[in-house]
Amino acid sequence: MEVLAPLQLSHVCQSWRSIALSTPGLWTYASLSLSPTSITSGMELMRLWLSRAKARALLLDVEFTDGPDSDPPPHGDIIMHIGREPLNVQRWVPGTTVFHFVCGLIRFAHSHRPNSSPFKTESHLRTQLTECGGTVLEEKYYWAAREEGLGASPSPIEIHAVRRAPIAFGIEVQLPLGPAVTLLDLAKTKISFQLTSGECAAILTACPALASCALHVSLSEAPLPFDALHLPLLQRLSLSSADGVNIGNLLDILVTPVLTRLELLGGVPDEGAPADGSWTHLSRFVRRCSPPLVQLDIQRMDCLVIGLVACLRSCPSLNQLWLEDCTLDDSVLSGLSSDVTDSSLLPELRILGLVSTHTFNMQCVLGMLKMRHARGTFLQELFIIDCGNTPYDTSPATEDVLTELDMVMMTVMGSVLIYQPS
Predict the structure, then answer these.
(1) pLDDT tens digits along 275-318
(2) Cis peptide leading into residue 223 (ω within 30°)
(3) How far apart are CA 104 and CA 304, in angstroms?
(4) CA of 10: how far to CAs of 18, 23, 27, 38, 106, in Å?
(5) Pair 261, 334 in one domain
(6) Alpha helices (runs of H) in 53-96, residue ranges in sequence order
(7) Are residues 46 and 165 part of one domain?
(8) Which of 364, 359, 221 lies closest to 302, judged by CA?
(9) Gene3D superfamilies in the record, alphabetically (predicted)?
């Protein structure tokens, strides 16, 4: 939808035009939908709004659509082209024109308001599923600047741009986004094509400014052609894998000093595991990087094989731990009570989720809660959901224990929530 009412008002008559041009408040918002043939006129309209809004707060919202005559993206290797500047930015090349359109607007905004300084610059690239089961690539750009000296007042200028395009042969190959991308979500590419662990590493290397990333590894590749992969700004990472695919080699090269949220979704393969059956990639990763993890989500893994308790000793700031479709036993839950030095493990842990996990005892859960409470590191919420092999004890003795801990237990359709009422 296009929102260009001020432009229409300025073309009614000379008197209305004079009023419209002398009223900056009319030019504080514009919404455009552009096709490949309207890029130039769209840029002129956006510049018009920038000039007529004067010093008022301004939001420019642009959505790009591919025309019916647009060429589909050619076959090619995403890794070879990501981060490469296009030879001709005037030509409608998927994944490039939007980026340069936004850059052109930013340059024009700076020339119009030289005292403005940007405080938000984000570039997002993600794959999404359509209602028909296909996959589209979505580009999103956010840029905002405020006048110097205005403190926390609303931003005078904001530019939002988005483009969604069908993926014909995988991700488009002309992507001059690499160093600018702050959010990368390619987790749904498994629907359209398959990425190896080496290709995922190459993509991450091309995007050093990432703050959030989600990738799906469909094929293993070892050894990886990288010794270390530094992502100094990455705060959230989600790695999923196909059955039998080892994502451990990716963890072995990652260096993420400010990572606060980690999601690992995938089984531990038998291939490449040590003779004792352990999988120590996660433990080595947290010991090497010492990331300030606040949330750890693990799905479809054996907590005994990955050495979860040993790993958690290197995560003192962890606030939420979520285990789904995992295997654990009473020793893991007991390990959440204290570490080998008899001091409290995970002193900041407040939320624990056990979803479709296997082989643990409810009495061990109560023992863990009592031990943590005695050490002053009590949980606020414990979710036990769809754990079919777990005998839920709702006896008066259990209620007495929870009352002593100032906690309440609710059971709904085979699920349990134990929490501290506010």
Answers:
(1) 555 788 999 999 999 999 999 999 998 888 888 888 888 898 99
(2) yes
(3) 54
(4) 7, 11, 11, 21, 25
(5) no
(6) 78-81
(7) yes
(8) 359
(9) Ribonuclease Inhibitor
